[in-house]
Amino acid sequence: MNNNFLDNMVNDELQKEAEARGQYNLDLLKKELEKYDNDKYIEFDVGGSPIHPHSYRGFYEQLAFEPNDEEEQKVGDFIDALSSTNGQIFSGYKGGKYTMHEDTMVWAAQYGVASGLAVVGVKKEDEKIIIKTKDTYEE
C-alpha cells in the first residue's frame, strides 16, 4: 500500500468521527455566521475571541483558531478570516505543509495545543455571537 492510500483511509475515518460528533467544517461555520450581524462581537463558549488561524496540533490537516481574551473580534472580520484560510497552506506543529479547504474541520485551540475542543455550533447570547465547542476528550 502506498502512503496516499493510507492517508486517505485515515482522513476518511477522521471525517466520519467529526461528522458523528457534529463538528463544523470551514464552510458550514462560515454559512452559519453569515446569518448574524457582521458588527456583533464573537467569542468561543470557553471564552476568548477566535484569532490567529493555524494548523491544529491534534490533526495537522485541520484548522484551529486561538481563543484570545485580549482582542475582540467581530463576526464580519472572523468570516473574512475563515474565507482567507480556504486554500491557504499552513505548517504543521512538527512540520509538513497542509492546505485548508471548505471541508476542513475547525477547532478552538492555542497554537501547539491539542485542546480537543471541536467547533459544533453557533448561537446568539445577549449581544454576542458564541461559537459552541464540544470537548472530544470527554466523549
Write the layout of secondary structure elements.
Blueprint: H1 3-20, H2 26-33, E1 41-44, E2 49-55, E3 63-68, E4 73-74, H3 75-85, E5 89-91, E6 97-99, E7 106-108, E8 117-125, E9 128-135
Parallel strand pairs: 1-9, 3-7
Antiparallel strand pairs: 1-4, 2-3, 5-6, 7-8, 8-9
Helix pairs in contact: 2-3
Question: Concise description?
Answer:
The chain is α+β, with helices and mostly antiparallel strands. It has helices at residues 3-20, 26-33, 75-85, and strands spanning 41-44, 49-55, 63-68, 73-74, 89-91, 97-99, 106-108, 117-125, 128-135. It has one domain (3-138).
Q: Which descriptors would you attach to this protein?
A:
alpha+beta, 139 residues, two-stranded antiparallel ribbon
Provide an overview of this structure.
- The protein contains three helices and nine strands; from the N terminus they run H-H-E-E-E-E-H-E-E-E-E-E.
- The model has no long low-confidence stretch (mean pLDDT 91).
- The protein starts with a helix and ends with a strand.
- The protein has helices at residues 3-20, 26-33, 75-85, and strands at 41-44, 49-55, 63-68, 73-74, 89-91, 97-99, 106-108, 117-125, 128-135.
- The chain has one domain.
- It has a seven-stranded mixed β-sheet.
- A hairpin with a 5-residue loop joins strand 5 and strand 6.
- With 139 residues, the chain is α+β, with helices and mostly antiparallel strands.
